[in-house]
Specification:
By secondary structure, the protein is α+β, with helices and mostly antiparallel strands. It is built from 6 helices and 7 strands.
């Protein structure tokens, strides 16, 4: 809160300044740049705050049997506006039948939010969200992928879930590189897995949840 409160004040004042009638075009442009940088800093502070909570909280997470197909459909509908604002065309590939997993709705929504934010930041014209079932380590798993065209050939996909990794900053000009690391922490709390892989010219980042797994 020591950081969030002054940032909120600064952002509010910048918004008021950018709406001033007497500003020249150059002055308004400067104000908007400062406002964009303030928003980026706010996102970084929010990430660090969430990270500190996740890393310090060892309380077991309550999960329930969840229809992840319906959950993901609703998530996409809820985020349709922000997808359109980025001018991207999503390629959605979901099973016709319900897929049931053990998960925590709040944590799953936060995971999907970070995964979507990641592809929106790096996708060029389109991106893909898909769900399939697969067998991993002799367990039936639900695999959910957020994928976009690969724009950085030097990217090390094995490091994407490492804290503060940014792929030589080619993946992001802003941020602290915590989004995918937070996804991993959220998955761990639900006994799920995360993965990243390159296939042809596509970077696939996703998660796997055991299907109909009994609580331990």
């Amino acid at each position: 809160h020591d950081l969030r409160t002054p940032l909120t004040v600064v952002r509010g004042n910048l918004q008021l300044l950018s709406k001033e009638v007497g500003l020249t075009g150059k002055q308004r442009s400067y104000a908007n740049v400062c406002l964009d940088k303030t928003d980026a800093l706010k996102h970084m502070v929010d990430d660090f705050f969430e990270l500190s909570v996740l890393e310090s909280d060892t309380t077991p997470v309550d999960t329930k049997l969840l229809d992840v197909t319906s959950f993901l459909v609703q998530f996409i509908v809820d985020h349709e506006t922000v997808i359109c604002e980025h001018g991207l065309q999503p390629d959605i590939r979901l099973p016709e039948k319900s897929v049931m997993i053990w998960a925590n709705e709040e944590l799953l929504a936060r995971m999907f939010g970070n995964l979507l934010g990641n592809v929106l930041k790096h996708a060029q014209d389109t991106f893909r969200i898909s769900m399939t079932t697969t067998v991993n380590k002799e367990k039936l798993m639900c695999e959910i992928i957020f994928a976009n065209q690969l724009s950085n050939e030097d990217l090390d996909e094995t490091q994407l879930f490492t804290r503060a990794y940014q792929g030589n900053r080619a993946r992001s000009a802003e941020g602290a590189g915590l989004g995918l690391y937070i996804v991993k922490l959220l998955a761990d709390k639900q006994r799920a897995e995360v993965f990243a892989r390159k296939e042809e010219n596509e970077l696939q980042i996703g998660t796997r949840f055991p299907m109909k797994q009994e609580k331990e």
